[in-house]
Design brief:
Chains A, B: Keywords: Decarboxylase, Lyase, Pyrimidine biosynthesis. 2 copies of one chain form a homodimer. The first copy, chain A, is an alpha/beta fold. Chain A has one domain: Aldolase class I (TIM Barrel). Chain A is built from 14 helices and 12 strands. In chain A, the strands form 3 sheets. In chain A, strands 1-2-3-6-7-10-11-12 form an 8-stranded parallel barrel, surrounded by 8 helices. In chain A, helix 11 links the parallel strand 11 and strand 12. In chain A, helix 6 packs parallel to helix 7. Chain A is globular. At the A-B interface, helix 3, helix 4, helix 5, helix 6 and strand 4 of A face helix 3, helix 4, helix 5, helix 6 and strand 4 of B.
């Protein structure tokens, strides 16, 4: 009922990073894409098959050194139900390889509708008495604009099924300031939302001091990462914005506690496109991704305390 | 590049309401569900086929009297990619029958990820130079917590493809007060978000005075509906929370302008479950839905000005 499995994966691999699986077609080498286009034409089926094959290669190359993957729903939805099927297959394949899956859907709604999202992504769907996992991720990102009515249904499923969630607190993008930095009762909205995470998390306590209700805080805001690490001692952070968006190892260091825990840093483009950046053939994309993931692991290890569960 | 097509549909049917297609299996009559269970077993396939058949019946019964449908993504995602396929089929079927489709996904993200959501739900996905509509809705609900970085990509697609959007402003649920009612610079968050809609909407002007950037405002907040109608003269409202959540015709009257325009009111459960409430056989579910839709149309007509585009 928490993020303990994620934290144990981080300790096992000695690596507080997650690989974002945002499979734009332009990232996928021709050696993977072209055979499917030849077989299915320029269709959503071809794209979806290429995406799954590409993801399989990445997962195989990363699963012993990276504890988690974060598929971004948007890049699957854009390929229709065929793409959504590739998302489902990707989630299951990553879990078979022992990885923790954070489904990045930023879902939000209320009451029985939020029950439906929680069932879809973390829980079980009932069909005439038969319980079926629809997508089966391990944690889901959610948006808290609607308040507790949108969070409680997810907490319920997390408690029943040992899952976790990450609430948007301070997002990595420049215009996050429009609402998130505004002051309510002399505190910024992001801090108010963060305090809500602490409160919601009381219902999902974890073994290592962090609850099942994490927070999304961007790598582009080093000062806020440090501030929030201090203010929210039981809230685990998912940190996007490393690499392409400008976040560095130094800028995320403040997100971690004295045990080297407290955060997991996402990288998508740098890992997915490492083969292009290295100038190596498309056939080597997975090994290039592995080399980049190791560089990222080492860069972060250099600026945070040694990771320990004690 | 606006919500003009929706407004014209409202004027044509003389009906400012939208039928929410939230197809929980418990709403679906046995005469529809059971044959699919017999054929496919208690599977997601069976559920998805039943949902699509159920929706077809509703759309056939409503398309001449109701201008729009609002499928709620959560109730399709919970049935996996098979359910998402039923969503896609439902959207196309409703459009074939001349209905405007508001895809209720409350999607949100930034930059190229939001581009992907916009392409998925309103735009076109490129596969090796071939442009394909993945879901093809007419408008999408979105969550503005991330600021303009999450809205601009949708505006771009709306402009290119004559589509619209609705941003969450003041949601119908009780805990919307936790963030949305808090004061920033002496104005509540919902009003600040509403003013952003007016600003974003300047890029998508419409023929009838309303832009392509609408706002979601709950039927449960009559005072705020009137306040926002006054403060946001160019922003069209999508009003959930009528019926089951407690909103009445009287409580939504303030959302409309002097031409009977300015808002569309959603009803899901009351329409979908009319056959149960009326105590009629499942076979008559679609006609029961039609009767309920007519009652709702007449109840709202009684409290708003006569609808005119002039």
């Amino acid at each position: 009922m928490s993020l303990d499995r994620l934290i144990e994966g981080i300790a096992r691999t000695n690596n507080p990073t997650v690989a974002g699986l945002d499979p734009k077609l332009e990232y996928i080498p021709d050696c993977i894409l072209k055979p499917y286009i030849d077989q299915y034409g320029r269709t959503l089926e071809a794209a979806a098959e290429a995406i799954f094959t590409y993801n399989q290669g990445l997962i195989d190359a990363l699963c012993d050194i990276v504890p988690a993957v974060k598929p971004q729903c948007a890049y699957y939805e854009m390929y229709g139900w065929q793409g959504v099927r590739a998302l489902e297959r990707t989630i299951r394949y990553a879990q078979e390889k022992g990885m923790f899956v954070i489904t990045d859907g930023k879902r939000n709604d209320i009451g029985s509708t939020m029950d439906a999202y929680a069932a879809a992504h973390l829980g079980v769907t009932d069909v005439a008495g038969n319980g079926i996992e629809a997508f089966g991720g391990d944690a889901l990102t959610v948006n808290g604009y609607l308040g507790s009515d949108g969070i409680d249904p997810v907490i319920k499923v997390c408690r029943q099924r040992d899952k976790g969630m990450f609430v948007l607190v301070k997002t990595s993008n420049p215009s996050s300031e429009e609402l998130q930095d505004q002051a309510i009762n002399e505190e910024p909205v992001y801090l108010m939302m963060g305090r809500q995470c602490e409160k919601w998390g009381e219902q999902l306590p974890g073994k290592y001091g962090y609850t099942g209700v994490g927070a999304v805080v961007g790598a582009t805001w080093p000062q806020q990462l440090s501030e929030l690490r201090y203010e929210l001692p039981h809230t685990f952070f998912l940190v996007p914005g490393y690499g392409a968006q400008g976040g560095s190892a130094e800028s995320v260091a403040g997100a971690f506690d004295k045990r080297g825990l407290g955060a997991i840093v996402n990288s998508s483009r740098a890992i997915l496109c490492a083969w292009k950046k290295e100038g190596c053939p498309g056939e080597d994309y997975a090994q290039a991704a592995r080399r980049e993931a190791l560089r990222m692991r080492d860069a972060i290890a250099a600026v945070i305390p040694v990771i320990t569960l004690e």
